[in-house]
Amino acid sequence: MAPSPFRILYIDGPNLNVIGKREPRIYGNKTLEDIRRMVSDAVAPEGAGVTFFQSNCEGEIVTRLQEAREDADGLVINPGAYTHTSIAIRDALLYSGLPAIEVHLSNPHRREPFRHVSTVADVVVGRIAGLGGFGYVLALQAILHHLRGED
Ligand code: DHK
């Protein structure tokens, strides 16, 4: 029997639904739909499956991470501003038991000091930041590489 394809879940936090219009100098001109299309195009030849979830609400992200324990093999997560504040998202990520790549469109370390902290940085496999939507495609490669044990 052929091995089942890896199920990758992308989670985006608050205000990522309005990128493209939101501070384009920082977050770029691509919409979240544009980026999802790039990821979907990249996943096709990989024989993996990808699903997407975005919420502006911390609790909804926590609930989706809890569910991911049952319906995903790996995560790509951009918690948005919750990156810098949310212990609940960190705890839910740990509960999921899943390997994750943390991704950011901008490079938070080139920005205000309050963005230099991440509550999930030490519980993810790796982090990609500052490369815009392309970072989301790189994150797909990174999580598949990890799941295939190619590290
Ligand atoms: C997205 C946000 O919404 C910010 O609050 C973070 C992150 C950075 C990003 O670059 O994708 O500070």
Q: Could you explain the architecture of this structure?
A:
This protein has 151 residues and is an alpha/beta fold. It is built from five helices and five strands. It has one domain: 3-Layer(aba) Sandwich (Rossmann fold). Helices cover 36% and strands 17% of the residues. Helix 2 packs parallel to helix 5 (134-147) and helix 3 runs parallel beside helix 4 (87-96). It starts with 6 loop residues before the first strand and ends with a helix. 3-dehydroshikimate is lined by residues 15, 78, 80-81, 83, 104-106, 108, 115.
Q: Could you name the key traits of this structure?
A:
globular; 5-stranded parallel sheet; 151 residues; 5 strands; alpha/beta; binds 3-dehydroshikimate; Rossmann fold; single chain
